[in-house]
Request: fold
Amino acid sequence: MNEPYREEVEDFYMSDLKKPPGEKVSAWPCTGRSGSSSGVSFSCPHVFLCLSLLCQAGSLLGHPQCLDYGPPFQPPFHLEFCTAYENFGCCDQEKDNSIAAKYWEIMDYIDPQGHKLCGRYIKDILCQECSPYAAHLYDAENPQTPLRNLPGLCSDYCSEFHFNCYSAISLLTGDKHMQECCETNKTRFCNLLNLHDKDYCFPNVLRNTDLNRNLGSVVEDRKGCLQLCLTEVANGLRNPVLMAHANDQTHRMFVAEQVGIIWVYLPDGSRLEEPFLDIKTIVLATPWVGDERGFLGLAFHPKYKYNGKFYIYYSYMDKKRVEKIRISEMKVSASDINKADPHSERNLLELEEPAANHNGGQLLFGVDGYMYIFTGDGGKAGDPFGKFGNAQNKSALLGKVLRIDVDGKSTTGRPYRIPPDNPFVSEAKARPEVYAYGVRNMWRCAVDRGDPVTRKGRGRLFCGDVGQNRFEEIDIIVKGGNYGWRAKEGLECYDTKLCHNSSLDDILPIFAYGREVGKSVTGGYVYRGCESPNLNGLYIFGDFMNGRLMALQEDEKTNKWKQQDICIGNTKACAFPGMISSYSKFIISFAEDEAGKLYFMSTSYPSAYAPHGSLYKFVDPARRAPPGKCKLKPVPVKTKSKRIPFAPRAKTILELLNEPPTMQPPGKSSSTGVTRTSSSKKAKTTPPSKIKASTLKPASAGKKTPKNKAKVKNKPKRKVKVTKVSKTTPAPSSTKRNPRVTRMKKL
Reply:
């Protein structure tokens, strides 16, 4: 697929593939902080296949989590009651009103003296449901464990509360055991509310600078590695080269395999049994490891919802045994919106490929409505075609970014129109389709949707251009731009003679990295989704050969880009339901869905016929959007094909942490955390010891009841009317656990 081609990479691949398919990537052992467009200033030599927690953020890494097992959020509106958490926490206005209603119902049973003594304590305890660390306070990090009735309280605070307000315990909890044993026994009560991890008990959790430093921001470890998490979305794919959406409000995902098959995935995660398109008998693809030929590109027309048109890019061999690239237009079936019309193909453009590698393959529509085509330079090594190579030859279509209007026809017989503002339409020897040139083999490009509020950045074209043998680069494509190849590779000269004679107006990459970092860039996307607001503006990409994930952040003042590594699978930061701790090594492509959520595809064995590819979604564990903000309403889709439910293969982090500890031979120290092996082996773990309120035995009898405590009025049989705290007051609520997450059977 990516660079270098078969002859150059065979040894590299085979050395990695001596192990059985299933190799996974976990954390990166980074030896530097970050890089910039001016050079490389870090080194991560190898991928470790065990979860060694190399990207942990020091000795104490906070893990904010709400009672619904998701990250905290910034409430969209002011909180009137639990104001301590109005900037960041686990309550929206509705939940805040519900807690306030419960508070006033409790206070209705307490005398005036009790209001003064206990009001603050009761409010603090109730509002811990809004704490960004609510899951820890209620011992609810794991959906499989019982939920506490009351939050974990620090020893001193618990003693003060019990001394002053022991009579309020029966109002705060309906737990009969706690009511019977603990109103008169402080020791038993505080033992039940004890947390094993003292850093998370209330109110210590508010004072802990390590836990609250940069709370709500993307978590970084000491070396600057961004802590993100993954969920597995699809598996069993044969070299998934791309995922696209039709922008038709159905929120379907179309995933293409290199062999020439496109599958439809529905919003519920299921896949349709029959493919959207199957042209594997036409597509030129082989089982050779690293072969770049095959089905490479897919783009839906901006008005697909109305005209049903989409476009494909693939390798094929003509009747004279000449290898070519074909770009075609097709239409959806009139009888089934989940099937393409196999007889609708209209050939737009064919390019003869002088070699089997450097096939390009990206198709996309810009915000201008035109289609952009990204071609490779023709293959071999060093672009040896002609005096200056294909990439610098504007009369050749290879090594270019092309732009065409698929909605028109030219007067010269082309099945497309040339946009009148293409940069070289008036240059006699140049092909009018050329939009930019001097590219080697751009592998995966994307259009920036722009900032959701300001629209800044909208329409920028980002590409990863695979290097020859020294540098990989990320470029922003501009009209008429010369990106330097083969005169330059990355930021330096490749062909010295051409380089010294090249234009000073060559477009330099926004970022380039050397072989000590990676060997084959896979271009990504600028995150503009709703679900993870922290990631807005980050350009996320990776390296095909070593599985490294990276991000670029633009400095708006200097217009320079800062690079940071992305670490996946941290067992503490990613201890959420559904999160996994590893991914298949060879990163083939990135994608975004209709809502802007970001994904990538990778495989453990880079052969077009090997069903070892998977699709993963990025998740920021530090912050999410407020509940309801990103709620989708997909247009219903009628399906004629059978739906195949998603069956995950990767073990989640919670499953790994819940596995029983493995006995070790005498003389060997036990491992803390999780030891990752290949997918065919079971991981080892030492689960943390936790104190469960439901299993603790009460301590011995405590002191006698003091006389000067707050008194609770005789509780009437009829429910007391709740004092309103806002225009609309929800009914009193109690802490409830969501239905337990059902574990999917591992295939």
In short: Residues 1-14, 27-60, 668-707, 715-747 have pLDDT under 50 and may be disordered. The chain has two domains: 83-213, 220-658. The chain has 13 helices and 34 strands.
